[in-house]
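Batch manifest line 459
LIGAND: G3I
JOB: complex structure
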Amino acid sequence: MKHRRVLRAAVTVAVTGALAAGMTMALTTSANAGTTLRASAAEKGRYFGAAVATGKLSTSAYVTVLNREFNSVVAENEMKWDATEPQQGQFRYTGGDRLVSHAQANGMSVRGHALLWYQQQPGWAQNMSGSTLRSAMINHVTQVATHYRGKIHSWDVVNEAFADGGSGGRRDSNLQRTGNDWIEAAFRAARAADPGAKLCYNDYNTDGINAKSTGIYNMVRDFKSRGVPIDCVGFQSHLGTSLASDYQANLQRFADLGVDVQITELDVMTGGNQANIYGAVTRACMNVSRCTGITVWGVRDCDSWRGSDNALLFDCNGNKKAAYTNVLNALNAGPGIPTDPPTDPPTDPPTDPPTDPPTDPPTVGCSASVSLNSWTGGFVASVKVTAGSAGTSGWNVGFTLPSGASVTNTWSATASGSTGTVRFANVNYNGRLGAGQVTEFGFQGTGSASGVTPTCTAS
Ligand code: G3I
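JOB STATUS: finished
ARTIFACT:
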């Protein structure tokens, strides 16, 4: 509970530039865009993962969504210390092994979480201290990483070792009290046990450049300079109703130290900004070439540790939410990771008009097409506007909604009306389109929009 309050406090900063920029970014759709998170991420050289409670692997509705959408998994609890070494020296891998088998059978990679953490320690370790604890914890790292050797893409070797607040220092814990070098000792033991796994440090409330993330940054810089084997930093990203303006810049400064970055436990408070924040986080990762993947902390809202926050991408029935659409669009629009040898210059966010050839035949004015994601009682419409052969200086798209349907939220356009005949006008950055150029906007609504067709007028 205390942990949860800390998170909440840390995520209620004002809506800031990165999110605002994200909300107003026009997306273009590649002709090869994927239609699932896993396909779209893979097309861009990344993974898209979910935390899994292995008990749910026998629930078919859960597994259907998991297998369709995700190509990476992490155990929500089953690889933690209390689960894997309940008695000292007696290791139990049942849950973790089950997840690894599921992943291997379904083309998924596995994140390992977490070898050492001040929480979820078995009682016997909680009661230890000093050199006895130091040897027990290093033995734990060695045994577990050896058991899973060759099967783990990235290990969270150490989780949440830094303090909240402004100190930028370490959190007090029994682990910390064994000596400040406990983290590097753990990384060295993990490297020896599984040289193929990427070794990560993972933490929360590191969603921008702040005292805590800077403390971690300094540690990583020190580790790199001294040859301590660290390969990646995980940003948990348990988010509230806004996103730090320097979220992407923070990822980039770590990447610039020569480590990969990963979004490791993403979930976002429900509400008007949820979908936008999910989109903005995904775009930030895509814009950082060393951001190699995103993991959401659960599959459906009802699977989440955040309970009534409805913090995930699928509702309790497994239906896609607006947040899902934004993530998918951001994956499809984002740059890929440069291949080796690099074929493209470093990838910055696109600032120029899209260069993809138009996918629709040119028309004199403009044309529009809509794709609907619907669930019982609601929908999200993604609308593609294509300029005709004369280009546009502005556009307006109309829909006649069925009775009972109502628009509740619009992005990248300005809506007039919410029921019946509803019109969407360009906003200032996306009205001017060259011949055949494509832009997208979207809206969310209640009721059903089944069968609607857009009409587009250019000016
Ligand atoms: O082990 C008992 C089990 O025997 C009992 O049947 C069951 C009944 O509810 O409770 C079980 O333990 C719970 C465990 O989840 C498994 O469900 C613990 O009480 C509960 O505290 C534990 O919560 C987990 C939490 O970490 C522990 O701090 C959440 O599922 C898990 O989502 C959460 O994940 C953490 C990450 O590891 C690190 N970052 C933050 C994130 C959210 O807190």
